[in-house]
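Tokenised fold entry reproduced for everyone:
>
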Amino acid sequence: MEVYVKRKLLRGIKMLIEKYINGYNQRSQLEFKNVSKEIIPWLERTAEENNCSVDKKEWKSKYNSYVVYDYEPFCSDGFEINITVSSHDANYLYFLKFLYNNKLDTIEYLNNCIGNP
């Protein structure tokens, strides 16, 4: 299976630090924007292995900002996938971000080696 990843679209990572949940439990959150559909299982598995939890996964329409699903729509073309991951220690999130960026770099490098545009 060939996976082509556009670097500009998948580098949307936003760190949300010191967000309180239930008013007392401080957790750090990391939001991955416009994640490729093929990378989602890897990202969820890697987050779990690194003491992180996937808090939110949403499909947001590229054409209408009001259309947001918390489940995969029947036809997922035209949607960007955003995933929010949290942990008690921000260092786990930094490491997850590092792994994610390395995964994208490796995919891009391999695509360039086989001659994809």
Notes: Residues 90-114 form the longest helix (25 residues).
